[in-house]
Design brief:
Helix content is 12%, strand content 35%. The protein is mostly beta strands. Strands 1, 2, 3, 4 and 5 form a five-stranded mixed sheet that branches. A three-stranded antiparallel sheet has the order 6-7-8, with no helix packed on it. The longest helix has 13 residues. It starts with 7 loop residues before the first helix and ends in a 12-residue tail after the last helix. The relative contact order is 0.21.
Length: 138
C-alpha cells in the first residue's frame, strides 16, 4: 500500500489525454515493487485503455514495498514485491512482448509476461478515440 493514492491528481490530469491518444502502455516507478494491470480507464478495465505497469523494483536502500492492498483489485493481473527488471520487445508495428524477470533467484527468472496488440490495429478502439467510454461500453 506504499504511496496509495499519491498519484490520483496526476491520473486525473493525464488519463483522458493518454486514452484519447491511444497509448498502449504506461510505465511508472517510485513504488519499489512490480505490478501489471489490464487495460484501464478511470480505474476500471477498458479494452481501449492503456496497460499500466509499475516497475520500481530495481532496488534501493529503503527496500521493497511489501504491503499490497488486499484483496487485489480486479484490474491488477500480476504483482510481486521482488527486485527485478523488465524487457520490452517490439516485434512489429502492431505487436510487442513485455516480460518481467525476478532477480531474487540465483538466475534471472521470467515471472510475468504478456503479448500486447497495439490499439491502433484494433478497429473497435480506433473508433473510440476522443470519446469517454460509458459503463455499458466497457
Amino acid at each position: 500500500m506504499a504511496h496509495q493514492g499519491e498519484g490520483e491528481s496526476m491520473r486525473l490530469a493525464m488519463e483522458k489525454m493518454l486514452y484519447d491518444s491511444g497509448v498502449d502502455m504506461v510505465f511508472s516507478g517510485h513504488v519499489h515493487a512490480y505490478e501489471r494491470f489490464t487495460r484501464v480507464y478511470d480505474n476500471n478495465a477498458a479494452p481501449c485503455g492503456p496497460i499500466y505497469i509499475t516497475i520500481g523494483d530495481g532496488g534501493n536502500r529503503e527496500g521493497l514495498a511489501m504491503a499490497y492492498k488486499e484483496p487485489s483489485p480486479s484490474i491488477s493481473l500480476f504483482r510481486e514485491a521482488s527486485f527485478g527488471h523488465g524487457r520490452l520487445r517490439i516485434i512489429n508495428e502492431t505487436h510487442a512482448h513485455w516480460s518481467w524477470h525476478r532477480n531474487d533467484d540465483s538466475a534471472s527468472v521470467m515471472a510475468d509476461d504478456v503479448w500486447i496488440e497495439s490499439l491502433s490495429s484494433l478497429p473497435s478502439c480506433g473508433q473510440m478515440k476522443g470519446k469517454v467510454p460509458t459503463h455499458d461500453e466497457l
